[in-house]
Amino acid sequence: AASDVYKRQGKTFVHPRPEGDPAEGRAVRRFDSSRPFNEFIDDEYARLEHQRDRDRLLSRAKTVLERSRRRLASRLVEIENGRSTADEGERNRHYGDLILASMHLISPGDEWAETPDYLNENRPVRIKLNPRLSPADNAKSYYDRAHRAEESAEFLDSSAASLTRRMEDIDRRLEDLPSMDNQQLRDLIREDEQDRKQSGKTGDLPGIEFESRGFRILVGRNARENDRLLR
Question: For residues 201, 205, 211 and 215, what is the CA-based torsion angle, rounded to 10 degrees?
Fold first, then answer.
């Protein structure tokens, strides 16, 4: 009806744009009229596909790095928990010194040594003994424990430093992700897949895993886990 009125008045009817037109507010990409339109369309779809591919690669690469970082952080927590036993070295060495200093107070077959602690205002301290060993051998036993604990502490420190360096490397790679090209992202993902495939060959192994000087080290937390590792 409106168009009939416009015709009688000699005017051109222009249909008003409906409210909420989906084209409203959209950015329109300019078309270079010097190029074939089909070529323009092909380039535009290629650009969109490249961007979608890059978005997928970026997301996948970020997931890969973050998963690796969580795995390393978990190992670092295990190492920190292991320090509680490594810290016993100094105490065991002190017990060995106290036994040697109090050999005249210890009788064969004693299960405990009661001796003043010269580092604690000579307050009495009780030290567990192996009744089948001489006082000197009991002292040596404590020195051996101290030595093992000190070696363990040195190993844990080295492993923790290695894990920390690897986590810092992952943090740098996460920051560099936006500047990587698609091929570099694919290489990163492929490297992770190969590492996971190689790790999968060993199966679900028990114990705690460390890395030191390029070696992967598995340590059982008890006799049963050590037996599984050896088998």
Answer: -50
Give the integer Cα–Cα distance in Å for 143 and 133: 14
Exposure on the CB side of residue 87, measured as CA atoms within 13 A: 6
Q: Which two tokens stand for residue 178?
A: 């936006």
Which residues make Cβ contacts (< 8 Å) with residue 207, sequence separation at least 6?
A: 218, 219, 220, 221, 225, 226, 228, 229
Nearest CA among 58, 21, 7, 6 for reference residue 176: 58
Q: Are 131 and 178 in contact (CB under 8 A)?
A: no
User: What mean pLDDT do residues 147-153 have?
Assistant: 83
Instruction: Name the least confident of 104-108, 132-136, 164-168, 195-199.
Output: 195-199
What does the pLDDT read at residue 134?
A: 92
Cα of first residue to Cα of last residue in the chain, in angstroms, is 92
